[in-house]
Amino acid sequence: MGRVPQGGRNWEGFGADPFLTGESAYETILGLQNGGVQATAEHFINYEQEHFPTLESSNVDDQTQHEIYAHPFLRSVMAVGSVGT
Prior knowledge:
The chain is mainly alpha-helical. 41% of the residues lie in helices and 7% in strands. It has a two-stranded parallel ribbon. Belongs to the glycosyl hydrolase 3 family.
């Protein structure tokens, strides 16, 4: 989601807007799969910390989970044939 610039995974996403990220992920995945490539939603929800991952927690409260992370992850899962870890 790009919430923390030092997170280290920002280049993999579509920005910090949850709705835009979800829709962009959905359309990107459908585009890949329409081209004959099987897409996989890599990593489960909230996996975005690469900068000192053992020193910081990626735990989020319920409100943050629903307002920021749930929609993009849901839209990705809706489009793919598999989810990897």
